[in-house]
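Practice record 12: protein with zinc ion.
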Amino acid sequence: MAVTLRDRLGEVTSITVLTGAGISTDSGIPDFRGPQGVWTKDPAAAAMATIDTYVADPEVRRRAWRSRRDHPAWRAEPNIAHAVLVDLERAGLLRSIITQNVDGLHQRAGSSGEMVIEIHGTMRDAECLTCGLVTPMPEVLRRVDAGEADPPCLACGGIQKSATISFGQALRRDVLDAAILAARSCDLFIAAGTSLTVHPAAGLCLEATEHGALLVILNAQETPYDEIADAVLRGPVGETLPELVRIAVGAGEQR
Ligand code: ZN
């Protein structure tokens, strides 16, 4: 008799979830690379997200600050997909959430800060590119509202940027190491709402499977890792992730 995914979920005790833009689109935050994506529709937005252009061109920075101020994430609420990962944590089954998103919605939903690994950083802080000073983003955006089009660092006068990883910037080594460890030390790895085309985030699927984890991919479109996945659920993440979590938590309670 074939062993079904449902049976195998009954043996799962430690789950790491990789989340991408697809988990936040239901909260009204557009993705970047899809047909309606920010970068697809507006190449100038991609220039704002490239470190060399950002540092070299004051007009790009002024535009970036306006874009940060007007970002939909400030008004966005977490959705059901964020909420069920809080359930997973409360059930004692969550190892880590590795997120490619910078919107902070996992923490807003109630996931513990220590559970969330933000591999692409966070838009909720600003960081000085010269001295590294980190300031809560709302404090800097208040200066933008007060008329500073490109507010410099208050400590050293340097250029500030959101504490996110721009194109041309390396991921933080300690954060990447934490993500790799979380992928290697789970027995189920769920990739939810990510196209799995951005490295090294996508390679975490391999880290997980090579260390014995089941791999389940939840995404509206195909991904390059579908072939090695134990299961692929193609529907909206807002439906597939709650279903998967419900089965995993239910199986956990029966143990
Ligand atoms: Zn500084």
